[in-house]
Amino acid sequence: xxxxxxxxxxxxSGVGAAILAKDKGMDVFLSDYGKIAPHYKxxxxxxxxxxxxxxxxxxxxxxxxxxxxxxxxAPTAPIMVKIAERGIPVISEIEFAGRYTDAKMVCITxxxxxxxxRFSPTTFSRTPVSMSALPEMWVAASHFRxxxxxxxxx
Length: 154
Known about the structure:
- The protein has helices at residues 12-23, 38-47, 58-61, 78-86, 93-98, 148-152, and strands spanning 4-8, 27-32, 50-53, 66-69, 90-91, 104-108, 137-141.
- The protein is an alpha/beta fold.
- The strands form 2 sheets. It has a 5-stranded parallel sheet with strand order 3-2-1-4-5.
- Strand 4, helix 4 and strand 5 form a beta-alpha-beta unit.
- Residues 116-145 have low confidence and may be disordered.
């Protein structure tokens, strides 16, 4: 039996996670309490991924083996409280994508990153993360307009 994955959030990273999960042979359902942008709906349709918008089908969500949650969904949201009560594991899109690579990664999420034209490890010298190993790492950032899960999908 395929692992049942529910993706909460139909934005860029949610759709990316859904595509990666489908590519890895999982049974995927994406749910967004709001509206999903037309181009993301089309991606889901093209990939044959079940989805809903404008609410949450609790029975379907609570049947998941694992939930991949958008960072914009508060842990206090009613659906998240119910997921926690059921003990269903919840992870982020970046954590999910990280399962499918051996690369060292620096992952930046929740921000728009503008890398300068001439990027070097010293560019981030004022950040709390040491960038001295940067040449050996992939940098996954929203600047590239691809969620980490899309970079890991086949």
